[in-house]
Amino acid sequence: MSPLVRKDDDPRNTLEELLQQSRIEELTSEHDGYEDVEPAHSSTAHDFNGHPFPGNHLQPARTQAKPPLPPWLQAATLGLFHEDLTTTTTQAQAKVTKECLPHLTGQDTSGFELNSHGLPHLRRTQHAAFLHAQFEPLPAPYVAIDASRPWFFYWVLSGLSALGEDINPYREPLIATVRPLQNPTGGFGGGHGQLSHCACSYATILALTIADALHVVDRRATWHWLGTLKQPDGGFRMAIGAEEDIRGAYCAMTMLTLLNLPLELPPDSLARTAGLTRFTDKLGEWISHCQTYEGGIAGAPTNEAHGAIPRYLDVPALLAWLAARQTQPEGGFQGRQEKLVDACYSHWVGGCWALITAALQQPPRNSAALWNRAALVRYLLTCCQQPGKKKGGMRDKPSTRPDAYHTLYSLAGLSHAQNVFTYNARAPTTGEGRSLAAFNWAARGPSKEEMRELGVDEEDLVNFVHPVFVIPMAAVERARQEFEDGTL
Amino acid sequence: MGRYSDDPAWADIIPLPTDEGGPNPLAAIAYDDEYAEAMSYLRAVMAANEFSPRILDLTEDLIDMNPAHYTVWLYRAQCLFALKSDLHAELAWLNATALEHQKNYQIWHHRMLVVDVLDSCEGEREFVSRMFELDAKNYHVWSYRQWLVRRFGLWEQGELEFTRDLIEKDVRNNSAWNHRWYVVNGREEREEGEAGGVVGDAAVREREMEFAMQAIEKAPQNQSSWGYLRGIVRKAGLPLQGCKAFVQRFASLEQPDEVRSSYALDFMAEILAEEKGSEQQAALALDMLAQKYDPVRRNYWEYRKGLLGVDAVAA
């Protein structure tokens, strides 16, 4: 990617990771000498607070007193439930805890500049440089992303927007680059000559929305193409002949909404043969079949619950499932039960709090009252920023390399944690046969008090990232206005 | 000068070079010559909608270079079926490719299409088990295994034992727990009216609860086994109280310093919240979670406490 990154990052090592949504999350299963995480020194919680030895706290303060550790990082909490049986899962978890703890507790600050709360600043300049560099020519081994290159357009532009960078210089190159990816029968493929695919089309359309270039999209053809993906059982395929899963439903509904396309199915849609007339017909039922006994939502009916998207649902069970995804002690999110923390779920799970708050019968004051925002901020700032003076980008966890995917979803996670998003339940959800619900979100930034609780300074704040579309709020509003009259 | 341009078998094809949209495309890949050439032939034959044996060679070549190429997989599948190709040979090739590219999405969908047409799942479960030896939580492989069970009606042909063995190996393998749930309840959930699973069959329910409880004894701090147990009780519509004596052994309010599992304490809070007049106790359990046993989720526990309708707790 960037000359900066290419020097020491062999792309071959990271290609699999860059691309595929489910990457290798497990570390090797051999027990390599890591004991289960021990309580740091003794059983008294206070010893761990930067005063490992008796009397240390009496020495003159070096520069500035370290702020006390939060409850979930206190020795007493870390020492809970240790006698439990060791298995492959616990070994992998112990290894991750071990690599994260020094960063989380501030023992190892990776040479980062610290903010007024003792946490690393958000390294805006380095992350922006890292994202800009993704748009440079890629060496041959990057052929592995040849079928998913549009994701890069989206991750980079959305990430840069979250950091407040000017993306306008990329507008014309983006328009030129995606033109050969659009098929006359509707949708975008991963490259020239590739079949239209939901993920590629979703990513391209979001990138074009950010760049204010949606005029490029053939909306009528897109509507027809989406009609071919809608299935008689209510779900969506990812491409013609491809798998049917929840990503298809999410990507398709996102595109229909952003482009203000009719919810009426095109006349030639196969789903019409089963009596369906609208894109939303049987969709709620289909998604409800994806909710498992755990409370989460699987990729397809009966599959294991996996952290991504959310009224056909057992909302309290879903809430419990989401809450349980925040990992102890790392504070980030895992994608499934008994799996490892990964920064990308800062969005895939962290982005659900605002959404579920809107669905609760007895909602709290705001979504912030449901989860631990400070823990996520701490995880992202201490564990997920790539160290090195000139290096940037964000990563899954300390033992991994940064990439555009983790950089965007980490920044989005920061936005979910720092800001409060509210849904206007009085606004219309449909109008003239179109889907409007996703346009009813408003955002506000943190108060001084909230910033103190979260451990962030002014310069660590990111711009609002829309909780549904994961692009700037302003870009969503612009798209809504652009297609308001609804003509195709 | 290339594998295809030098081959007389491809002489009738005029390759279609890539259109990068202009001189400065974003994130342009510096394709090596082999891939660029193969892609230019792919574009040409796809534009002509050709289905012939040489397409199988071309697509295999491309998949070797880029296994995540969904277009190539979909085109290959169409071609295989149009030509009525040897699907056993296809599976043999897929086995090697799957082992080499474990996290690939497309390959499992392709395999499903092939095995569906073959109408036989011989050898499939054995192969899938090999994949689980490499990664016992591979999401795509588990989806495929569920499909096999459904498509070939394998509900009572060793699947339960298979999950037992995997859970024996790692009691926290949530994927294996999820598959067990599917094997036990899947048929009833899909074919309405069938009475079985943990709802319709008391013996099955007791067996599964016992299985979960034994797993909990082995490793109390395990979300998977607690989730399975609670899932059964909830689905069967039974009062949670039935589990109280068992849960108490892992989380008792009388011994607030000896809680052996935060999941047990959460379960206890739910049991108490359902009991008339025990709201204060439920609040106490939630306080214990918020203060001591699971402080990272303090806000969530406080929210749950708010739902109880009690103000303060005399702790």
From TrEMBL, chain A:
Its cofactor is Zn(2+). One of its GO terms (molecular function) is protein farnesyltransferase activity. The keyword DNA damage does not apply. Belongs to the protein prenyltransferase subunit beta family. Residues 23-34 have a biased composition (Basic and acidic residues). It comes from Neohortaea acidophila. Pfam families: Prenyltrans. The lineage of its organism: Eukaryota, Fungi, Dikarya, Ascomycota, Pezizomycotina. One of its GO terms (cellular component) is protein farnesyltransferase complex. Residues 122-469 form the Prenyltransferase alpha-alpha toroid domain. Residues 20-45 are annotated as: Disordered. This is Terpenoid cyclases/protein prenyltransferase alpha-alpha toroid. Keywords: Metal-binding, Prenyltransferase, Repeat, Transferase, Zinc.
Automatic annotation (TrEMBL), chain B:
It holds the Pfam family PPTA. Keywords: Magnesium, Prenyltransferase, Repeat, Transferase. The keyword Magnesium applies. Belongs to the protein prenyltransferase subunit alpha family. Coiled coil: none annotated. One of its GO terms (cellular component) is protein farnesyltransferase complex. GO terms for molecular function: CAAX-protein geranylgeranyltransferase activity; protein farnesyltransferase activity. Its cofactor is Mg(2+). PANTHER family: PROTEIN FARNESYLTRANSFERASE ALPHA SUBUNIT/RAB GERANYLGERANYL TRANSFERASE ALPHA SUBUNIT, PROTEIN FARNESYLTRANSFERASE_GERANYLGERANYLTRANSFERASE TYPE-1 SUBUNIT ALPHA. This is Protein farnesyltransferase/geranylgeranyltransferase type-1 subunit alpha. Its EC number is 2.5.1.58, 2.5.1.59. InterPro entries: Prenyl_trans_a (IPR002088). It is an enzyme of class 2 (transferase).
